[in-house]
């Protein structure tokens, strides 16, 4: 299964690519809606602010292409960090912005006054549901986070794992073939590589 | 809670990596030297973050710096921050393309605050680290720019609040007095900085053993500690340092490449 990494202008795509290569996947980085539409497996990385990201995806035709691949063809999809937040209906980062609306929810700032923001560093990710995405990983395995906003899912069943930083927030969300991780698996040493390997195995069965 | 971070800082200029003492640079070796003297894979798997600083005082060869970032980031599965001498957005773009996850700005805080504001708008606060170099002079704490060469008129706490207002996501604070001395971090200043903002702080300057790194983390004032001592951590030294921090009772994050099932 070839991994297609969506390039919409910002962020370090190379590290996502080298992590997937490390776990044995063939990869391609593309900004072509055509290639995205035909992909076997899609990764939406993300660094940057929500508003410009949505705009970049939409004006380039990538939103439409991704939507087609994910909903009509059911290809496995993983959104990373901002790429996960983009799945929400809306975000309140620098004003209100419409998201993809693939998993019901909204994106708000982490706002616990007892912790320093952004949330930066390795932190525990605790699975709520047993998922093969977390196979071969210790309970509460640690992954690297760097963010100030978080996804508030409307439906409990879409939350696959949670993390505590001051308040608790959703660190992995999932609905069918759509996955989102708030942390950066490509920057989480072997724990992240394991999760990506698990995602590929899961995806191969979809 | 987020775990404390152990960072390793490499100082690079025009083909050479440097050891720094009070910001006086001593040439150590080129990339081959680093690769010969360090088990780089082991380093990459023993730290939470790699920081690569361009310390060139010349009109730097940016492409060369980017190619070093690119070479060092190969097979590094942890975050990489890079900076030093950033004057425009194009330079930042090329750093990100070369494998950096975060960028570090220093002189821009005093000379080009708008650049920082723009970078925050494009890449988000979490991608922008503000580095501040300081030293104690005449009973007060002065900030310096241009690799410690030029004293600014801005007090440390004012520099911190300006950076916070510009939207940076993190601080990298280096004591020029303590840099390379092994005397430990300048704790009173770190405490002052801790109280002056609510952002994560990376402490630098003064720690070249695991005891000194542990002191920084035990203080509770910083989220991360960094060392740039090129001689004290050769071979497997950073793995030992990480184990040393654990032995000092600091809970570091854990992973195990041996157990990876692909």
Describe the model:
The complex is a heterodimer of chains A (206) and B (262). With 206 residues, chain A is α/β, with parallel strands linked by helices. Chain A is 27% helix and 32% strand. The model of chain A has no long low-confidence stretch (mean pLDDT 94). Chain A has a single domain, classed as Class I glutamine amidotransferase (GATase) domain (Rossmann fold, 3-Layer(aba) Sandwich), CATH 3.40.50.880. Chain A is globular, with a radius of gyration of 15 Å. In chain B, helix 3 links the parallel strand 4 and strand 5. In chain B, helix 3 packs parallel to helix 4 and helix 9 crosses helix 10. Chain B is an alpha/beta fold and 262 residues long. The model of chain B has no long low-confidence stretch (mean pLDDT 94). Chain B has one domain: TIM Barrel, CATH 3.20.20.70. Chain B contains ten helices and twelve strands. Helix content of chain B is 34%, strand content 27%. Chain B has an eight-stranded parallel beta barrel with strand order 1-4-5-6-7-10-11-12, surrounded by six helices. Chain B is globular and about 50 Å long. Classes of the chains: A alpha/beta (206), B alpha/beta (262). Chains A and B meet through helix 1, strand 8, strand 9 and helix 6 of A and helix 6 of B.
Shape of chain B: globular
Spatial strand arrangement across the major sheet of chain A: 2-1-3-4-13-12-11-8-9
Quote the distance from N terminus to C terminus of chain B.
29 Å
Roughly what percent helix of chain B?
Answer: 25-40%
Name of the CATH superfamily of chain A: Class I glutamine amidotransferase (GATase) domain
Low-confidence stretches of chain B: none
Total of helices of chain B: 10
Overall pLDDT score of chain A: 94
* SSE pattern of chain B, N- to C-terminal: EEEHHEHEHEHHEEEHEHEHEH
Share of helix of chain A, binned = 25-40%
What is the CATH architecture descriptor of chain B?
A: Alpha-Beta Barrel
State which percent range the strand residues of chain B make up: 25-35%
Question: How many domain units of chain B?
Answer: 1
The CATH class label of chain B is Alpha Beta
Sheet of most strands of chain A: 9 strands, mixed
